[in-house]
């Protein structure tokens, strides 16, 4: 299975934010509706370029260190600038490896230097579990047919 298979099922909608938006504005977008785990920062106006990413965790951690001072911060002050991405052609196992290695819960999907989707660890685990159930069913059928 490939990352593109996940995007085919969940869609390619990506919620973005501008780097100059305030942190409270980003927090409101994350809170929803819909409730989101992360926003891709894209300042190009076309939601194609990935300039950064900001997650719920980023906001909470900054709140813990800055307290009420977060009200004066922008997304640029908090976002992760060096974003780990994947491609639609990457395997789900490779995406899981990136998420595990870098301890990220969200990966922007980039193709030809353009943002084409966003996958979460939940999307990856759900797809991998479905694969494993299919594999177990096939093995069970093979075993039972040999009787």
UniProtKB/TrEMBL annotation:
Q: Which PROSITE patterns match?
A: CBS
> What InterPro entries does the record point to?
CBS_dom, CBS_dom_sf, CBSX3_CBS_dom, Diverse_CBS-Domain
Q: Would I find Transmembrane among this entry's keywords?
A: no
* A Pfam family assignment: CBS
Q: Where are the transmembrane segments?
A: none
CDD domains per the record?
A: CBS_pair_bac_euk
Keyword Transmembrane helix in record: no
Domain (CBS): residue spans on this chain: 79-134
Keywords of this protein's UniProt record, alphabetized? CBS domain
> Which named protein is this?
CBS domain-containing protein
Which species expresses this protein natively? Answer: Pseudonocardia nematodicida
């Amino acid at each position: 299975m490939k990352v593109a298979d996940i995007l085919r099922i969940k869609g390619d909608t990506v919620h973005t934010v501008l780097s100059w938006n305030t942190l409270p504005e980003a927090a409101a977008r994350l809170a929803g509706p819909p409730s989101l785990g992360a926003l891709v920062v894209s300042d190009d106006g076309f939601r194609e370029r990935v300039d950064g990413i900001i997650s719920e965790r980023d906001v909470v951690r900054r709140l813990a260190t800055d307290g009420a001072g977060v009200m004066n911060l922008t997304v640029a002050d908090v976002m992760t600038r060096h974003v780990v991405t994947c491609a639609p052609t990457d395997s789900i196992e490779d995406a899981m490896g990136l998420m595990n290695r870098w301890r990220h819960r969200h990966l922007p999907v980039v193709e030809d230097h353009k943002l084409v989707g966003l996958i979460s660890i939940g999307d990856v685990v759900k797809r991998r579990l479905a694969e494993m159930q299919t594999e177990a069913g096939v093995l069970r059928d093979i075993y039972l047919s040999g009787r």
